[in-house]
Amino acid sequence: MQARTDRPFIICIGAQKTGTTWLFRALGQHPDIAAPPVKELHYFDHVHIGNRALVRRMTDVAAQIRSEFPDLVARFKAERTLPEDPDLARRFTFAFGEPSDEWYLSLFPQKGMALDITPAYSALPASGYRHIGEMSSDIRLVFVLRNPFDRILSQLRYRHRPDIREYQGREKHELSNVTDEELLELARSPGVIARSDYATTLRRVWNEIPSERVFHFFYDDLRADPVGFAQQLCGCVGLDPTLLPAPQPQRVNATAQYAFSDHVLNEVRNISEPLVEDLAQLIEIPASWRS
Questions:
Q1: Mean per-residue pLDDT for 158-163?
Q2: How many domains is the chain partitioned into structurally?
């Protein structure tokens, strides 16, 4: 049975490669934010898509805990007793618990506005957004949008980073060893396109969550003025911007640039242009997206 809560929630559904890691760290400094033990909880994509990201993350956090706190882990296994420290207890719950609505809600500190930033949520089916909307009666859904052309290229670079390939259990190699056709196969894949098809995401979201609770922002503004962006977002979702410590403007989790061939650039442009035009039917987009 689905759990319900009256506590306020901010759930950022992406998009991937739009500065969400930086945003999680920035908002996490606000005194009225209740952040979970890890960014990207992947709960709703686990339930509604069968994404393996949650299982990988739980496994990683469990390994860290076993290394750091072997005695507490032994006690937990023997007595099912969580550590007294509440932050550590939530890490244990995340790593060793059984995913459910109750489990998900227990991952956030009791006071403040709960924050879940998981870019994979941008590809949820309608049932996923319905689930989010029904879980909390006080939801704020945030969607940060980046020019699909730039976002797809960034994802191509990211997916071929040696550390990311290793984490995902794939063979490590340099991006320069990947053929154009291999890159374009990834660019055309349903998963990559779904994370750039903002219009489809918004239509699904608006059908399940009242539009006044859905806030979209542009990555262009974050890059131009990170501090101002964070303060504006706080004001929109009901957080006092004056209580937000000045966040560091540096980019986080950035991927090295790469000179793609003209063939790849042209094909990615052909993929992204219809996505841009579809979105433009719903909301006003930055003029630079069409240049």
A1: 68
A2: 1
- Reported pTM: 0.90
Phi-psi region of 121 (alpha: psi -120 to 50; beta: other; left: phi over 0): alpha
CA distance 136 to 191: 28
Q: Which CATH number do you get for residue 281? A: 3.40.50.300
Q: Which of 111, 142, 151, 165 is nearest to 230 (CA)?
A: 142
* 230 part of a folded domain: yes
Write out the two tokens for 54: 């949650």
79 occurs within a structural domain? no
**Does some domain include residue 167?**
yes
Residue 154: phi, psi to the nearest 5? -65, -40
Strand (E) or helix (H) holding 70 = helix 70-79
For 111-121, the pLDDT digits (tens) are: 999 999 999 99
pLDDT digit string, tens, across residues 8-51: 999 999 999 999 999 999 999 999 999 999 999 999 999 999 99
CA angle 161, 167, 172 (to 5 degrees): 50
> What SS3 string covers 189-246?
CHHHHHCCCHHHHHHHHHHHCCHHHEEEEEHHHHHHCHHHHHHHHHHHHCCCHHHCCC
